[in-house]
Design goal:
mainly alpha
Length: about 100
Amino acid sequence: MTRIWIVVLVVGAVTVVFKAAGPVFVGRRQLPVRIESLVALLAPVMLTALVATQTVGGDEQIVVDARLPGVAAAAVAIWRGAPVVAAMAIAATVTALLRLAS
């Protein structure tokens, strides 16, 4: 077994344990309101961080290329009320057209 598969299996196992820890430790008890609101914000914040790093992230430097206008177009589409799938298609189209033009 290669190192990559070992890493994949370990990360998968840790993910399962981590996801199971919440219901095991909390059970049927309610979380405090403050913690519940914090947990509700975790997913959007993590998604935003992922999008930002994938959009302008490079090898230890900020890279501005065709991805940035694509994400900006998707942001405008979402702001205007477009569904997420349509915004993703808009982002991909804008990025592809800009890459084709350059």
